[in-house]
Amino acid sequence: MQDVPVRVRGDVADALARGEPVVALESALIAHGLPRPDNLQVAVEVEQLVREAGAVPATVGVLRGQAVIGLDAAELGRIASRPEVAKLSTRDLAPAIAAECDGATTVASTAALAARAGIAVFATGGIGGVHREAATTWDESADLATLARTPLVVVCAGVKSILDIGATLERLETLGVTVVGYRTRAFPGFYRSDSGETVDWTVEDPAGVAAIAAAQRDLSIGSGAVVVANPLPPDEQVEPMLHDRVLTQGLHAAREQRISGKAVTPFLLEHFHRATGGASLTANVAIIRRNARLAAEIAVAIAR
Ligand code: PSU
Ligand code: MN
Q1: What is the pLDDT of residue 235?
Q2: Is the pTM here over 0.70, yes or no?
């Protein structure tokens, strides 16, 4: 075990100390959500977008038994290129640190580590949620429970259509997680701009999100995250007919191959990328780019 379990990169620590904008980014989507080797390029480019928008990017991961807030270029390369990098949710952090291994952090573990370091904003693709067969499998992402107790703004494109989106929104309500649509009342379904579900609150600009984050903090009633749902423009979504066909196939294949536990999400994502001939990958990368940019704008608005 390293003597310090968490290390914050110098420029990230400096920005936080000065109250300057910082955006946390997750590494599980790089290691387990996007295909190698292009995943590294996406990770690097997304950091660049955050910088261009005036914030310091801090990609989170675990390296040789140390949680790192702000991976450097070599560390990012290591996480992106090694197939043996583990997918670490919140409960996996301590064993991974004790065993001195490498790991990529999910929404849950990234949010927990980022908030601990004092980071107010986090960008991802889509958060985890309630799986479609949860009534029998009890498969609900730890992302939900963690967001319930972790005070930061999470920018995402909703939850993937591989999940039960209605049930996920119900659980977010039960858990007291604030959900707002960015310039929309339609809750996005990741690859799809509109999941068919709606949200109660909408914001029109980064300052609107900053105002909600400030109210949440000042209320101080132990609230968790503010989820900002930022949909893809309709002309950039995966074509709905193709989407539905590929989804049905993927769910069937997962059942046949008895894929379970934390392998389910990476399996279905990979299936989508293959079966849509890359269309879902293009949408996925567009989502990550857009969310990183918006998260940086929100971080700038919060820092003002
Ligand atoms: N959404 C994506 N790509 C991803 C994931 C979600 O668009 O790679 C990852 C995130 O890291 C998320 C995790 O936290 O999947 C959820 O996995 P599970 O359902 O096993 O909790
Ligand atoms: Mn699960």
Answers
A1: 96
A2: yes
Both tokens of 110, joined, read: 């990234």
pLDDT tens-digit series, residues 185-237: 999 999 999 999 999 999 999 999 999 999 999 999 988 999 999 999 999 99
Query: Are the CB atoms for 224 and 147 separated by under 8 Å?
Result: yes
Residue nearest to ligand 1 atom 5, measured at CA: 29
Fold of the domain spanning 6-303:
Indigoidine synthase fold (3.40.1790)
Q: How far is CA 43 from CA 46, 59, 82, 137, in A?
A: 5, 9, 14, 33
Q: Is the CB of 125 under 6 A from ligand 1?
A: yes
Q: Out of 47, 87, 140, 160, which one is annotated catalytic? A: 160
**Separation in Å, CA 274 to CA 10, 27, 44, 47, 152:** 39, 21, 23, 26, 34
If one counts every other C-beta atom within 10 angstroms of the C-beta of residue 239, the result is 13
Q: Are strands 201-203 and 226-229 parallel, antiparallel or unpaired?
A: unpaired
Closest to 288 measured CA to CA, from 34, 9, 83, 12: 34
Nearest to 85 by CA among 126, 29, 140: 29
Average pLDDT over the chain, rounded to whole? Answer: 96
- Is 160 in the active site? yes
**Of 243, 226, 159, which is closest to residue 195 (Cα–Cα)?**
159
